[in-house]
Amino acid sequence: MIAALREAVVRGGLLTRIGLALFAACFFVYLFGPLVLMGITAFNSSAFPRVSPWECFSVEWFEVLRNDQTLVEGLRNSVFIGIGVVALAVPIGLAGALMLMQINQRVRPWYYTVVISPILVPGVVLGISTLVFWDRVGIMFNASHETFFYNGFFLTIVGQATFISAYSMLVFISRLQRFDPALEEAALDLGATHVQTFRKVLLPFLKPAIASAAVLAFLASFENYNTTVFTIVSESTLTTVLASKVRYGINPSISALAVIIVVVTLLGAAVFEVVKRREQKAARESEKVARGEVPARARRKPLLLDPAMFLILAVFVAGLGTVYFAGTVGVEECKAAVKEEKQRVAQERVRKLQQQRMFQRAAPVAGEGEGEGGSAPAAPQAQREDSSGFESIFAPQNLKEQVESGPPAAGTESFQGIFAPENLESQSGAGQ
Amino acid sequence: MSAEVTLENVWIRFGDFVAARAVDINIRQGEFFSFLGPSGCGKTTLLRAVSGFLSPSEGRVLIGGKDMAGIGPNKRPTALIFQNLALFPLMTVWENITFALEVRGVSAARRRKRADELLELIALPGQGEKMVDELSGGQRQRVAIARALAAEPGVLLLDEPLSALDLKLRQHMRTELRDIQQRVGITFIYITHDQGEALTMSDNVAVMREGVIEQVADGNTIYDRPATAFVASFVGENNLLRGTVSAVSRAAVTVDTGLGAIRARAADSGGKGSLAVGDDAYVFIRPESLKFDEEKKMDNNISAQIHQQEFEGSFWQVFFSIKGSERKLKLSMVNDGSAMSHQPGQRVTLGFAPELAVATPAGPLAAE
Ligand SMILES: Nc1ncnc2c1ncn2[C@@H]1O[C@H](COP(=O)(O)OP(=O)(O)OP(=O)(O)O)[C@@H](O)[C@H]1O
Ligand SMILES: [Mg+2]
After folding, report:
1. Three-class SS of residue A411?
2. Does B103 sit within 8 Å of A183, measured CB to CB?
């Protein structure tokens, strides 16, 4: 299939290539479009995360983010829980993987299915069952609600670890499959105890897998919501804070957080790539040494002096500096200008409105001539006309007019009309 | 230090499969002992039973006269050099070599010193800081040997340690191994399916076939006096004639083959059913024992037709077709300057001495 596709690309005409390029473009837009857009909104000074209208390039939302106590606390909790999950899930995963390698071939598929099942169970179910289970255990021990059985941190770490340890087990399995069991036997044969064999032979071999499993476990814990939302009880994590923020209206500080996360991820990926390449290069070199082509070299230079590493660092620092200066210098002036412009537009609108209203008011008074009493019910009617019909659906006055026949009492009207957009205008209109 | 190893009626089964059958072997202290056999005959399995990675289904393994049942590999006075070496890839050469000392808690300084001595012994001085993957195949080989020696075992077990090396290096390492063995004086149990290796290095060789020990003897005996048809066909080159025993005397048996009656020495089967009149028998004659014998001076004569001659520098190889056999007979003679006076297609008479031919009971042969 893939070979055929490659063939088509190599042999295919211009049309095929354009089609493929288009497809690739769509694919990347689909993947990264939302991220890029969100990233841009972080630097717009507008109070709502949006790209247009563009107001001012600013880094103020990063400041807002830093001062947002609930977010910062959620972040801190998430990190704490993440570390806890790593400490719990990685050893469990390692033990599970080692067990898998040891047991009889015939029961292996069964065992595998059992230990992998937490990944397949919906996170919501895991969360609820964790909560229920530890509640039962707590009751069994007659524990009060201050004990750890009801502690959000404990429950979340334990709950997340149920499936994250299965993830890390997968990492260990794939590494262990490349382990030569003869190494273990060699160590035993040379007189090592089983513990020494594990510590001196297996563990060093698993080191890279432990690192990947830890990173994976941390990230899985960090971004988890489904399970956490149940187990966190009265505490909060980054994801639960974000979720509640979105529910009550957001500002671009969320975008700022997204930018930070994306940048950290990119940095991590770049550093990982550099380290991997260094390792490959070292492997090639030692092969050459073994073949006697080159003499053995001195120890490698430290990672930080690697040119690629240096470049990454330089780009990061330069980018950070540029953004900081662009986002702080001249922002106030720009904002003042935008504000002025806004006020101008608003005043323009108000003026137009007043003109309209004066014009409308003049007409019925002249036509009816029935006295002052008619003017009060007439006001809502006028409002209904100048505001759009769609908005007025939500106006409480609408309802009242249909239900009550007489003119409404002024007190109730003003109270019930708080949420009606017309109210504002009518007040400003009355002030005239 | 050095220890003797005894296998008493050892059976090893994997489910229904029998990997070792009634193995009885005594390996003397300080001996260089080889197991020789085709791939899959159970050599590694036996070695693992000695080193303690598997326990025999039946029978006993004794090292230094002590029954090893229930004693793990890390408690046995053996060190195993694995078929694939199994050097620790994440340790330097000297760390590899002194691993056995490290797990005993010997200080780093003393380990370094011992590593340097061993590196000297294996002719790799000053290479201790290298990583294992920076070594060539032969160097790795020697590091594996040094690592096993550092454990100061009573018995060193070597599982085809030279199989991965090229011919030149293999020959070099053979002499070196033999040297090391004589210097350290411990028992070596060596596994190979290369008969040249087994015959040149060993004090004694056990030839194995499908889990059965066919013969245990020194190299000369194995070559000159094979006990079974398998040993005769597996070790070295041999011409085979099939027939039936027609007479048995104390010194020789007479076998009726399609080419006439042939007198041969009866194989010493160690009491396991010797030849009797009427038995199917195989007669084996080494190519170098076969001679041109137009005057019929020798006791055994067969007529044959020259098929092909090959000149191999110091040797001539001549191939003959004979009546009633697909196989060609092979004769090899030293190129002593006498020009070959024979032509392909020519009919000739061949002869050989009865002492140089061996008659064995008919039985399984080694694969070609
Ligand atoms: N753990 C095991 N389970 C089942 N069968 C096994 C096991 N180990 C070995 N065998 C079988 O036992 C037989 C002997 O194996 P062994 O490894 O001892 O052969 P070998 O003589 O060392 O061969 P080679 O020269 O190829 O290394 C083989 O047929 C092999 O399939
Ligand atoms: Mg083997």
Report:
1. helix
2. no
